[in-house]
Amino acid sequence: MKIVVGISGASGAIYGIKTLEVLHQLGIESHVVISNAAEKTIQHETSYTIDQVQQLATQLYSQEDIGAAISSGSFKVDGMIVAPCSIKTLSAIANSYNDELITRAADVQLKERRKLVLMVRETPLNLSHLRHMTLITEMGGVILPPVPSFYHKPKDLDDIVSQSVGKALDQFGIDAKLFDRWKGMN
To answer: 18: closest CA among 84, 90, 106?
Structure first.
């Protein structure tokens, strides 16, 4: 299995990092793009260094490398996760504005009818945000905001992050066993 992972500059860089950690632990090939803004967010929001995050990738690409393997539909992958997905990135993907590698790779997933999961990070949402999410959904993408559930009784931030990442990986048929699944109220 091969998954493309884009980490945009939205708050919530830990979602992308956790995704990479899990894919790495499971031995799943990851093709990774970290935006310049994401590098700043990682440094501001987490205790990870950029080098530590990059080392989790099977293959790392520069955001400016518009000719990278993942920019072509002929490079076979199982899909892509953008975690977190900024509104800028959402808007660019929804409008096929492919001036950077994250948005180009996402556009490739849509045109090839492969799985695209966007962990959109923004609140509250305005009408433009919602319309862009609708466009992505109509094109076959999955909008998966990292909205925590609490039925699994999270004990810390990692439990909350893990549940959202687990839900995103579920979209690819990957059960990483990151959270207790709902079994009913009894």
So the answer is: 84
